[in-house]
Amino acid sequence: MTLSVLSVASELYPLIKTGGLADVAGALPGALVPEGITTQSLLPGYPAVLRQLASAEAVLDLGTMFGGPARLLAAEAAGLSLFVLDAPHLFGREGGPYAGPGGDWADNPQRFAALAQAAARLGRGALPGYRPEVVHAHDWQAGLVPAYLHYGEGPRPGTLMTVHNLAFQGQCPAALLAELGLPPEAYSIDGVEYYGAIGFLKAGLRLADRVTTVSPTYAAEIRTEAGGMGLAGLLRDRGPDLFGILNGIDTAVWDPARDSALAKPFSTRRLAAREANRTALRREFGLDDDPTAPVLGVVSRLSWQKGMDAVLEALPALLGLGLRLVALGTGEAAIEAGFARAAAANPGRIGLHLGYDEAMAHRIQGGCDALLVPSRFEPCGLTQLCALRYGALPVVARVGGLADTVIDANAMAQAAGVATGLQFANATRDSLEATLNRLALLWGDRAGWQRIQRNAMACDVSWSRPAAQYAALYRAIARR
């Protein structure tokens, strides 16, 4: 039996992306089709989104929302069935989805309250002929969706709140309660109140029928005071309603056998063809043309959370072992500057591209020998899943989804033939340096290295199993 879901997200690949949220929101609808789930995705009408809609039909006049007219558009794009909130006064500005040149948009509370209000109206059947059975809200930007449905009148659909990163919670002053269209009774510990403010994510976590996060280990970590970021007590209270469902990746987009971004396609049966991508990557980043030196890759935000400061501290040891490094990303100014200085001081051994380039990310995955992911916390992580698929051994901290997706190449795992990468305890210089030593030893055993590569590439990193779990959860919510 088919079940209808409305997915609400602030970004959606390939239309608009700043991080993994977009990848998940963009890939999950298609993966759910074999499970009998039909998904319509609601997202804001940013200029970048509207430019990519070949045709769009205005299907619902939403009246005035936070100082200007708003309407709902229906469209098809990139194989996705879309509702787009067209409110130029809120979203018709160039820049990022959440910030411009001067920092975060000051009206973000109103912008994403409008998105949540539109979702709630769709959920209650405001659009003739459409009424979803479940509304799936992603991250803090959609956190008020369960609140508007909870405090509204009449029958409502079931609600699911997914946390992609608990560090981003969306808070605003309590004085905005009435302006955001929330009733006085909503401002309580069992509603939207959060340490004297309004908490968008907190509201969703408290008021949704079920809560998920993007890996089983992260679901356990956020129940602890150390990992809960002020919400551990609430998440412990939600106990039976909180689930960790591991992310997947779009294996049609990330397919080394058919990837047009690569110098040469390859597979487990044609693993020797990967060498052409190693050569091309060294050339692109200006590294010495030495095929015997393993190349480590970084595709990441250059931030403390991602452990990039530890990478900088471990660079002398990395270079001392004869390893090379290529890095793609942008982030905190001090860490960016550190990578820039390191690249300038070590030409031929360190290559850097500050910024983000999707095709370059594919080339790094297809050409590096190992991928560094030393995060201090990581809800799931997608880059290590791509690395597995492309035969770049993931070198990961033992946290969150990294712990759930990479099998450490310890002696027993190698003897059993199941190792897929390397894990280490935490993002410190000592821990990372010890792991780089292990990596160098593994590289010396070329036959052993290729066995681990083949194991990694054989991993099922698709959405197949996660989609089945989401479908079962949707059906349970719809029957609530």
UniProtKB/TrEMBL annotation:
One of the entry's Gene Ontology molecular-function terms is: alpha-1,4-glucan glucosyltransferase (ADP-glucose donor) activity
Q: Which residues bind ADP-alpha-D-glucose?
A: K17
Q: Which residues form a coiled coil?
A: none
Keywords, A to Z, come to: Glycogen biosynthesis, Glycosyltransferase, Transferase
Q: Pfam families in the record, alphabetically?
A: Glyco_transf_5, Glycos_transf_1
Organism domain of life: Bacteria
Q: Which residue intervals define the domain Starch synthase catalytic in the entry?
A: 5-236
Tell me the protein's name: Glycogen synthase
